[in-house]
Amino acid sequence: MKGPSPAIPFDRGGAARFMPWLVALMVFLAALSLAAVMTLQHALEGWDASLAGSLTVELPPVTIAPPPPANAGKIKVQQAGQNNNDLAAALALLRATPGINSAQPLGRDDVARLIAPFLGNALSPEDLELPRLIDVRIDSKSPPDLAVLQLKLIAIAPGAVIDDHLLWLDRLFLFARSVQLTALVILALIGIVAVLTVMFVTRTGLLVHREAIELLHLMGARDGYIAHQFEREALRLGLAGGAAGLLLAGLALLALGHAAEASAFLGDAVNLIPALHLKGWNWLALAALPLAAGLVAGLTARLTVLATLLRLP
Amino acid sequence: MSSLAAMVRFENVGMRYGRGPEVLRDISLSLEPGSFHFLTGPSGAGKTTLLRLIYMAQRPSRGLISLFGKDLSGLARRELTPLRRRIGIVFQDFRLIPHLSAFDNVALPLRVAGTPESKLRGNVRELLEWVGLADKLDARPPTLSGGEQQRIAIARAVVGRPSLLIADEPTGNVDDAMAVRLLHLFEQMNKLGTTLVIATHNAGLAAQSGRPVLHLENGELMRAPIPAARVAAS
Is B73 on the interface with A (CB under 8 A)? Predict the structure, then answer.
């Protein structure tokens, strides 16, 4: 059964008409920001999981052509790598080192696959002077002393380099974290703007409906009774606007997802746009945004009305 | 002292708006429970301001006001709410809520006080029938005449059986026959124990009722002679 009409005619208040649109816009922006934060979080976890606990040892390339006579440094490198004895020795060293779980040399096919996205398939590794790579898995709980290992490797193969990816990973993490922080700041700003908007709309509503409010007050309505009417209306408008904003955000995220797939022409390693890999709880968090918008609107309206009513005798 | 138990008591009350001149000066009065007073005076004399002070729409600039034997200046804001529920008010401009039906307007004080819907329906219907608006239960105020709106305003003021009824020109928009009928309603309420203060510029109505008159002139209260026929009763 339909309950009695609210005593305050909210449908005649000017500013309240715009509130669902404003909330929709804010939820739309908030959803995109939140999706960005969560997508980046997954990307960071993925990078961390795939790169932490691994390192790459690069041995100088094997000579494939007579060295240019003027380049002394190059000669040295080429001489050091003239055969694969140093590779075998390096593998033996690595496999014998405590803290290293495995060490596998990358074959020519693996190297060819790595360079294919950049150079295409026209060139084979045999045509190029490429360092020989060893994929090393380390025990991340008791990792080996990389400085000592580096010295030992140089003794076996001068010019050998250990790449623990940390420099690259650190910079990538710093960038990703900065983007995440920016998105969180945007999210917080949207929240503040939402609160201020509801406060403004509620104050306007209090002015527009001041006669009805004074009437209720003089009849003996408690402040909570009057505040509840504004709270219920703000909750309704907030939920309606929030649902519309989430719908728009969902469409935008789908479009971005397609854009991410389209940009993945270089394989997963070189996606221009991170793929939108959102988990179940991520979608729940996004779906909770309209609810949060409604609750924030309702609570803000209630507190605003209660504070304003204190001015009445 | 009887004034301690007075329904309404003013002691040297003054009222000014902002930095303006005092619109009420040194008002002292005591209205006993069950009394019935008319408040008269020319336009601008301060009648509405005096009524607003009684129904706690404003606080006085100076002086003390007691209602139901309680000094208002000593009460916390939330303690005024139960006192307000004991007061019925008929506003000069009716103050009906335009989007609510006549029924919902009259039911409003009961709903505000938390009366269950099942209990209020009968009371509201009966009262609207009594003021001659049984066929206008669902009508919105803007579709009704001034007289009909005034009767809804009166029904709303009395539906909660208030201890104190304050009416500002309650017969200003009705014909003489309805004015007499409404006056009869007020008399009935008074007999049932309700204290009444009715502001009117209609000196004839006040004289016809034979009730004591509080007369305001330039913000000052003058007690008009109480009609002889009522001396014994009051």
Answer: no
Q: What count of other Cβ atoms lies within 10 Å of the Cβ of residue B95?
A: 18
**φ, ψ at B45 (rounded to 5°):** -75, -20
B77/A313 Cβ within 8 A? yes
Instruction: Please answer yes or no on whether A313 and B108 come within 8 Å at the CB atom.
Output: no
A226, A296: one domain: yes
Residue B30 located in a structural domain: no
Instruction: Give contacts of B116 with chain A, Cβ < 8 Å.
Output: none
Whether B125 is in a domain gets the answer yes
Q: Is residue A54 part of a domain?
A: no
Q: Are residues A85 and A208 in the same domain?
A: no
Look over chain A and give the mean of its residue pLDDT values, rounded to a whole number. Answer: 80
* A99 within 8 A of A142, measured Cβ to Cβ: yes
Q: Does A154 share its domain with A178?
A: no
* Higher-confidence position of A116 and A163: A163
Range from A18-32, A269-283, B31-45 carrying the lowest mean pLDDT = A269-283
* Tally of structural domains, chain B: 1
Do A201 and A305 reside in the same domain of the chain? yes
Q: Please give the residue range of the domain that contains residue A95.
A: 61-159
How close B177 comes to chain A (CA, Å)?
29
Helix runs in chain B, H state only? 47-54, 77-84, 102-112, 117-130, 146-158, 176-191, 203-209, 228-231
B216 within domain boundaries: no
User: What contacts 24+ positions apart, CB below 8 Å, involve B186-194?
Assistant: B186/B36, B187/B36, B189/B158, B189/B165, B190/B34, B190/B36, B192/B161, B193/B33, B193/B34, B193/B163, B194/B34, B194/B88, B194/B158, B194/B161, B194/B162, B194/B163, B194/B164, B194/B165
pTM of the model: 0.71
Give CA–CA dist B234/B227, Å, rounded. 10
pLDDT, greater one: A123 or A298: A298
pLDDT at A248 > cutoff 90: yes
Q: Which domain holds residue B143?
A: 100-153
How many independent structural domains does chain A possess?
2
Percentage of chain B beyond pLDDT 70 is 93
- What is the ipTM, given to two decimal places? 0.88
User: At CA B225, angle to CA B222 and CA B229, rounded to 5?
Assistant: 150
Which residues of chain B are within 8 Å of residue A7 when distances are taken between CB atoms?
97, 100, 108, 111
Which tokens in the block code for residue A218? 């003089």
What would the pLDDT profile of B133-185 be if each residue is shown by its tens digit?
Answer: 889 999 999 999 888 898 899 999 999 889 999 999 887 777 777 777 778 88
The secondary element (H helix, E strand) that includes residue A131 is: none
What per-residue confidence (pLDDT) applies to A3? 61
For the beta carbon of residue B184, count every other beta carbon within 10 angstroms: 10
Burial B12-21 (b: 16+ CB within 10 A, else e): ebebbeeeee
A285 lies in some domain: yes
**pLDDT, mean of residues B173-201:** 84
Inside any domain, residue A293: yes
pLDDT at position A200 over 60 = yes
